[in-house]
Amino acid sequence: MSTAILTGPPVPGSSLDADLRSLGFHVEIASGPHETGTLLARVPADRRVAVVDPRFVGHLHALRLALTDPRFPAAAAPGVLTAQPEARPALARALAAAAVPAGAPATVAVLPDTLAAALDADGVAVHRPQLGTLVAAVPDDPEARHRARAAVDAVDEEAVRLRSAVKAHDGFFTTFFISPYSRYIARWCARRGLTPNQVTTASLLTALLAAGCAATGDRAGYVAAGVLLLVSFVLDCTDGQLARYSLQYSTMGAWLDATFDRAKEYAFYAGLALGAARNGDDVWFLALGAMVLMTCRHVVDFSFNEANAQSAGATAKTSLALSNRLDNVGWTVWARRMIILPIGERWAMIAVLTAVTAPRIVFWALIIGCAFGACYTTAGRLLRSLSRTAPRTDSAAQALADLADSGPLAEAVARITARRARAGFLAPLLAALGAAAVLVTAALTGPGWAVVAAAGGHVLLSGLAVAAPLKGRLDWLVPPVFRAAEYGTVLLLAAEADAAQALPAAFGLVAAVAYHHYDTVYRIRGNAGAPPAWLVRTIGGHEGRTLVVAVLAALAANRGNDFTSALTALAVAVGLVVLVESVRFWVSSGAPAVHDEGETA
User: Distance between CA atoms of 137 and 570, rounded to whole angstroms?
Assistant: First the structure.
């Protein structure tokens, strides 16, 4: 149980004590800063502690936002402060500095506000939630207290909670066709004690059922699949809204929400491919191509965002000025969000086309739409990057290196190469040359030793690309280029193999590797660092897996079934290793308590 320390006796008629207890706090009463420090020392070190001014007047949800969000080491609102275990030492130091010597006159300062300022000065990031119309105040006389209570009564707290449950920047379809009612589903779930994790799991199961319906290959199955996919998306929106409505953020929720969206979508691709096969139409190449395109597109988003996460002011002024001007024209905001085919629009398109057309049409529409959206967003990011002037931070360069997923072969090349900072665009150029070599060779010659030689060249150039810190203007392109090389090689070699089941096996392998890459992204986002080095080495790194697949294809060049078996075994091995390690991490005490607010894409 968390502990809340009131810095004085409760004010008569106040509901503060009851509000704190309703939020799960055990309440202690101190007589001043010195006794507050004494009570703090008695609370076990692994518990959250809140310091609250007894004069506080405000909404219960204002307290909930300030005191119960587990994602931040410390958080504050007027009159209240909370500290997670990692911020407790800094809080103790701040209390010691604020303590009043015995016999000195008492101060009427708001102690939690003083402590929050001290934590800021001590280097602890104190989160201050946006309260909007919610009231949080510390009135210092009866008249001010009366006004504050009147302000509390004048605000519909429930309406504020419902509004804040919806993300501020969402896609057109989600904003106008899902959120107007899904927020009420979230409230219904909250009032019945359901958790976001349960809703997330229901969304996954619904999507898997949709994939199963699509796999039947008949029109009724396709219609049911389209309907169920939309239901799954409604639940997918609901789980995040439920988390924001009730502040039920958790480590398990972070893992589930971060991975299930891709699992649902890619499982549906597989269902469509199976359904098409029942009708004699082999679309596994398109299904795998759509997954490769979607994953590479997401890696572009993740890589660019991580590269610029700590230096937003260094992006191009010209492109930002144009973007800001367009934001002032209302319809352009929605047009720019829709043009990239974000998840809401994309799933709606997939659902409708599945119900009324054939899987081949669904995949072609998906590939064309996503390719256009990827070109649009990437072009804008290139323009911003080319006029970048500020240097990239060390942490951003490290994030790009982690996203690169370089294995022992590339590391060996990097170690024997002088690690000097590089000017210009050498790193992405080297990565692109290696990727082009292996992809073009695979496309022109098919499985064989020429591809193995090209994959060896890709290993060498990949190591050279990451031999120096990735701090160049376009170095954020390195991870997506590596993804395109690996996934594309698997796709091309499987397509040209003399075996009907090679492409489904390749689909499984790319899905397993993509899971590892998404898992890496969300660990970095939670400030937990990349997966352990032993995991990356065990599964070979991107260049090692590319080389292994090329060798397997060459060895089984005239035995397509052997290549299929090898791809299947590799997919199972990689999938088991990365999934077991991922589950271990996300259920551990060290996992970040984050809830993915979602990409529009």
Answer: 60
Position 97 confidence tier, pLDDT thresholds 50, 70, 90: confident
What is the β-pairing status of strands 49-52 and 80-83?
A: antiparallel
Q: Give the tokens for residue 125.
A: 């990031």
Euclidean distance between CA atoms 154 and 530, whole angstroms: 48
Residue carrying structure tokens 């303590």? 99
- 197 and 252 in contact (C-beta within 8 Å)? yes
- Over residues 518-557, the pLDDT tens digits come to 999 988 887 788 999 999 999 999 999 999 999 999 999 8
Can you name the residues that pair with 6 across neighbouring β-strands? Answer: 29, 52
Query: How does pLDDT run across 56-80, given as a tens digit for each residue?
Result: 999 999 999 999 988 889 999 999 9
Strands 74-77 and 80-83: antiparallel
Strands 2-6 and 80-83: unpaired
The residue count of the chain comes to 601
Least confident of 128-137, 327-336, 493-502: 327-336
Phi, psi of 485 (to 5 degrees): -65, -45
Residue 499: strand, helix, or coil: coil
Please compute the mean of the pLDDT values over residues 414-441 and round it to a whole number: 85
319 band by pLDDT with thresholds 50, 70 and 90: very low
Contacts of 186 (CB under 8 A, 6+ apart): 165, 238, 241, 242, 245
Rounded to an integer, what distance in angstroms lies between the CA atom of residue 498 and that of residue 268?
26
What's the CA gap between 113 and 253, in Å, rounded? 31
Phi, psi angle pair for 528, to nearest 5°: -100, 0
The residues near 229 (Cβ < 8 Å, ≥ 6 apart) are 207, 210, 268, 347, 350, 351, 354
pLDDT tens for 329-369 read 556 778 888 888 999 999 999 999 999 999 999 999 999 99
Q: Which of 236, 238, 241 is nearest to 262 (CA)?
A: 236
Q: What are phi and psi of 53, to 5 degrees?
A: -75, 125
C-alpha–C-alpha distance, residues 79 and 66, integer Å: 10
Does 406 have pLDDT greater than 50?
Answer: yes
